[in-house]
Amino acid sequence: MGDIYNTLLDWPAVRELIRSESADPHRLLGPHLISQGVLIQAFIPTAVSITVCIVDSDAEYPMALEDAAGFFAVLLPLSEIPSYRLRVTYDNGTEQTLHDPYVYTPQITETDLRRFDAGVFYNVYEKLGAHPMEINGVSGTYFAVWAPCARRVSVVGDFNLWDGRRHPMRRLGDHGVFELFLPGIAQGTIYKYEVKAADGTTMLKADPYGVYAELRPHDASVVWDTTHYQWHDQAWMEERAARGNANAFPMSIYEAHLGSWLRGPAAVDGQGRPVSGSEFTGYRELAVKLAAYVREMGYTHVELLPVMEHPLDASLGYQVTGYYAPTSRFGSPDDFQYFMDYLHGQGIGVILDWAPAQFPRNLAGLANFDGSCVYEHKDPRQGTHPQWGTLVFNYGRPQVSNFLISNALYWGEVYHADGIRVDSAAAMLYLDYGRSPGQWIPNIYGGNENLEAAEFLRRLCACVHGRKDGMLLVAEESAAWPRVTGDADDALGFDYKWNNGWLGDFLGYMRYDPYFRYQRYGALTFSMLYAYSEAFILALPHHEMSQGRGSMADKMPGNTLAEKLAHLRAAYGYWMTHPGRKLLFMGQDMGIIGDWNESGGLPWEMLTADDGEASADALERRRFRGYVKALQHFYRSHPSLYKLDDQPEGFEWIDCMSGRENILVYLRHSESPEETLLVICNFAPVLHAARQIGAPFSGRYEEIFNSDDAMFGGGGVGNPTAVLSRREEWDGRENSITVCLAPLGVHIFSCTPIEDGEATG
Question: What is the pTM assigned to this prediction?
Answer without folding.
Answer: 0.95
